[in-house]
Every structure is written in structure tokens, then in C-alpha cells.
UniProtKB/TrEMBL annotation:
It comes from the Bacteria. It comes from Thermocoleostomius sinensis A174. The keyword Ribosomal protein does not apply. The lineage of its organism: Bacteria, Bacillati, Cyanobacteriota, Cyanophyceae, Oculatellales. Residues 15-312 form the NADP-dependent oxidoreductase domain. GO terms for molecular function: oxidoreductase activity. This is Aldo/keto reductase. GO terms for cellular component: cytoplasm. InterPro entries: AKR, Aldo-Keto_reductase, NAD(P)_OxRdtase_dom_sf, NADP_OxRdtase_dom. Keywords: Oxidoreductase. PANTHER family: AFLATOXIN B1 ALDEHYDE REDUCTASE, OS07G0143000 PROTEIN. Residues 296-318 are annotated as: Disordered.
């Protein structure tokens, strides 16, 4: 599977990354209980060992703890920091109403990460408030010019919002590198709402978060062994028992296809996403074993017929 270059001046990376939302997060996830700093460091090192270099974090993940952990891990590893590509995010809070707020937020993120620059800096949500998109995106463009981020991206932007962001940045001679959105076999709305088509038209990479639908596509959660969800999964109606019953045929298909290739349902689901072209799934991983499992999505391809079967099986998710 071909590597993907972010933007016009960004790094060239494998078409798979690591989502670090759960790293250090006690509010939505169980950091400090069933996983800790040591298991996350194992995930970090394992990712680099298997050729995964992109780690996606944000200033609000764990109230900055996700960034701090990544900064610490980069200092501890014997790898060159240039082999690690960090993507982080600016959250447009209502009281951030001028360009200086963007600069201050990135300064704080870089301090936690212990880096002079990041590979990708993204707007976490398409909120305007008092700043407005023009001021926000020009402030981000300034950070590229100053070398504090190599590329720029957005997250959760609609097709029209992407076009606006692309247009504003293009006036500064900067490409919009990514739009980070939910995308999986069970969440395919970007195929019908114009986001995927617009990204392809404008050369924007899709960073697919929740590419395994918070674990639903692993086959771990079924109606037969149903237990009420905890943590962030409590907010997801797809974890209800009735939804899991409807999901069963898709899990059976993923399992059958996986057996043909010696792969797990999750690896098949991630491979299907990568096969869409210019899409980088960023599944979460809390330990080295989960990273190795995710990496099993690389280095092989589904057949056209298998992709078509999966398309038909989950067509209602568009």
C-alpha cells in the first residue's frame, strides 16, 4: 500500500497512524486503571518498530496529558525525533478571539510535546465564535511561515467548510493538508455528504478517526455477550444490544474475509478504509499488542470482490 504525503511540504508516511485520544485521559477513558504510562510507551515504541510514525493528539486530550506523554516518550526513545510525526489540534474556544490565541495555543502544545515544530496542526472543530474562519486560518498560515508546523488541517469540517478553508489558505500559498472526520464501515456519511468527493478534488487527505467504530468492528462486542458499555462508549447508541444484533452479519462477513487472508475482522476493516485511497485511519491503541494488531492492516490488499461485498453489507451507513 502506497505511502501518503501530507500536503505539499509535509512528511510521507504509512497510510496508518495512532489516535492518542485515550492517552492520559481519565474523563472518557480508563487511563491509570487498565492501562498506564508504561503500556502507552510500549505502544509508542511498537508503532515505530512496525513503521507507523504518525501520532494524532490534541491539546484537550487528557487536558494536555496526551501531548505531555508523547513529548516524554520521544525523549526516552533512541529514535531520531525526525522519525516521529506528531499531529495535534487547536480547539477554538469562545474566548479565543484573536490571532494571538492561536499562537499561544501552539506554543503551549509545542512545550508539552518538547518539539520546535509539529508535522500537522489542525482546527479541532469548525467553530467561528468571535474570531471567524478568516482570522483563524490566516493565524494558522502564519505558523507555517514561521516553521512551527509543516502542514495545516481541519477536523469535522463539511464539504463547503473545507472549500472555504482551502480557499483562504491557498491565498497564502499553503495547501489544506487534511480533514479529520469519522470514517469507518459503519460511519460512511462522508461518501454521501460531499466531504470525500471534495477531498479528492482538492487533494486533501482524510484522517479517519474511530475507524473501528470504537471497537465495534473488532468483533469483541456482540449481542450474545452483551454488557452495558462504559466510558466514552456509553455515548454511542451503536453499542446498544439491538444495534449489536443488526451488526452481526457484517462481523460474520469481516470474519469470513479475514480467514481467507489470515487476518482479523479489525484488520480487514482498516484495510478497506486504506483501499479507498488517500485515507489514513488513526485507530486508538493503548499497548503494543493493539498496535501490532492494527499494523496487520498493512502490506496486503482486499480483492475487488471483497471490497464490493463490504460495500454492500454496510451501504446503509452512508
Amino acid at each position: 500500500m502506497n505511502a501518503i504525503t501530507l500536503g505539499s511540504n509535509g512528511p510521507t508516511i504509512a497510510p496508518l497512524g495512532i489516535g492518542a485520544w485515550a492517552w492520559g485521559d481519565k474523563l472518557f477513558w480508563s487511563y491509570g486503571k487498565d492501562y498506564d504510562k508504561a503500556t502507552l510507551y510500549d505502544a509508542f515504541k511498537t508503532a515505530l518498530d512496525v513503521g507507523i510514525s504518525l501520532f494524532d493528539t490534541a491539546e484537550i486530550y487528557g487536558f494536555g496529558e496526551s501531548e505531555r506523554l508523547l513529548g516524554e516518550f520521544m525523549q526516552q526513545t533512541d529514535r531520531s525525533r525526525s522519525s516521529v510525526h506528531i499531529a495535534t489540534k487547536y480547539f477554538p474556544l469562545p474566548w479565543r478571539f484573536n490571532a494571538q490565541a492561536v499562537a499561544d495555543a501552539l506554543t503551549a502544545s509545542l512545550k508539552r510535546l518538547q518539539l520546535p515544530t509539529v508535522a500537522l496542526y489542525q482546527v479541532h472543530q469548525p467553530f467561528d465564535f468571535l474570531m471567524g474562519q478568516t482570522t483563524l486560518l490566516n493565524a494558522l498560515a502564519d505558523e507555517v511561515k514561521q516553521g512551527r508546523t509543516l502542514t495545516l488541517g481541519v477536523s469535522n469540517y463539511s464539504a463547503e467548510q473545507m472549500r472555504q478553508a482551502h480557499r483562504i489558505l491557498a491565498d497564502r500559498g499553503i495547501a489544506l493538508a487534511v480533514n479529520q472526520v469519522p470514517y469507518s464501515l459503519l460511519t460512511r456519511q462522508i461518501e454521501s455528504n460531499g466531504v470525500l468527493d471534495t477531498a479528492r478534488e482538492l487533494g486533501i487527505t482524510i484522517l479517519a478517526y474511530s475507524p473501528l467504530s470504537q471497537g465495534l468492528l473488532t468483533g469483541k462486542y456482540t449481542a450474545d455477550n452483551y454488557t452495558p458499555p462504559i466510558g466514552a462508549r456509553r455515548l454511542n447508541p451503536q453499542f446498544s444490544q439491538s444495534s449489536l444484533e443488526k451488526l452481526a452479519p457484517t462481523i460474520r462477513l469481516l470474519t469470513e474475509i479475514g480467514e481467507t487472508h489470515g487476518k482479523t475482522p479489525a484488520q480487514v476493516a482498516l484495510n478497506w478504509l486504506i483501499a479507498q485511497g488517500n485515507v489514513i485511519p488513526i485507530p486508538g491503541a493503548k499497548n503494543g499488542d493493539q498496535v501490532r494488531q492494527n499494523a496487520g492492516a498493512l502490506g496486503w490488499s482486499l480483492s475487488p470482490d471483497e471490497r464490493e461485498q463490504l460495500d454492500r453489507s454496510t451501504a446503509t451507513s452512508r
